[in-house]
Design a protein that fits this description.
Length: 264
């Protein structure tokens, strides 16, 4: 499987494209501390009838670790650069957590590039500015040691205890993504999250929107998704039996919700 490197003025982005070139495009955007591989199951399924475009968010995986702090103007602009490079005028977009926030940004700032928007396990304001700033400072100060700690504690943020016990290989694979994330890139994304707040803006989102919430998500809660549903006209909300990385913990429910929504 070969990846494409898309050039932007501030570094390259690792992009993987699968599926028929003339099919509707579906962009998949990863969460903090993961890579485009988090979407393997969804890419296998949806590339049957979509041109699936997934990428490593800046600072992650094989994408540039450009100097931070980042912002969602930058991370959203990266998606537009990918669409431009691939000659895609409009796409469906599905992002999870930080990737979901990128989707909200696109819904507010670049709706002309979106067909349908899926925002999974996310919120118009994720966590607190202080919490993200503290995490970024720790990672910048301690580097690899801090990333190892974050990898060790990631199952409690990402998965239910039952899933962690039942699926150790998958959980270890997810931990390998965060353990392999460049500290400077991770910190720069935490700094973007610290500044990110679209609560006053998401009412402007007019593209058809699906919100996916994990019933056991301690990071971005069902209440966060309900608040977005109240703000975004016509938004649908589906709750799946999972914690934060719901596409990994409940792929059948996640994929069914996504497939039904994309069918229109
Ligand atoms: O802190 C985490 O690992 C969970 C998370 C918050 C934003 C995101 O993308 O992941």
């Amino acid at each position: 499987m070969s990846d494409t490197l898309v050039q932007t003025p501030s570094g390259t982005l690792r992009v993987r494209v699968e599926g028929p070139t003339d099919a509707p495009a579906l962009v998949l955007s990863n969460s903090l501390g993961t890579t485009l591989e988090m979407w393997d199951a969804q890419a296998a399924r949806f590339s049957q009838d979509h041109r699936v475009v997934r990428y490593d968010t800046r600072g992650h995986g094989g994408s540039a670790v450009s100097p931070g702090p980042y912002s969602f103007d930058l991370l959203g602009g990266d998606v537009l650069a990918i669409l431009d490079a691939l000659g895609i005028a409009r796409a469906h977009f599905c992002g999870i957590s930080m990737g979901g926030f990128t989707g909200l940004w696109l819904g507010v700032h670049a709706p002309q590039r979106l067909d349908r928007l899926v925002v999974a396990n996310s919120a118009a304001k994720i966590g607190t500015a202080e919490g993200w700033a503290a995490r970024a400072a720790l990672v910048r100060a301690q580097g690899a040691a801090a990333m190892a700690e974050l990898a060790a504690s990631s199952p409690s943020r990402w998965f239910t205890e039952a899933f962690t016990a039942a699926q150790p290989a998958l959980v270890q694979r997810a931990q390998s993504w965060i353990a392999g994330t460049a500290p400077q890139g991770y910190a720069a994304c935490c700094e973007a999250l610290a500044q990110a707040d679209l609560r006053a803006d998401i009412a402007r989102i007019a593209v058809p929107t699906l919100l996916v919430a994990g019933s056991a998500d301690p990071v971005t809660t069902v209440a966060d998704a309900q608040a977005m549903q109240s703000a975004i006209a016509g938004a649908r909300l589906v709750e799946v039996p999972a914690s934060h990385l719901s596409n990994l913990e409940a792929p059948q429910a996640f994929d069914a919700a996504l497939a039904q929504f994309l069918r229109g």
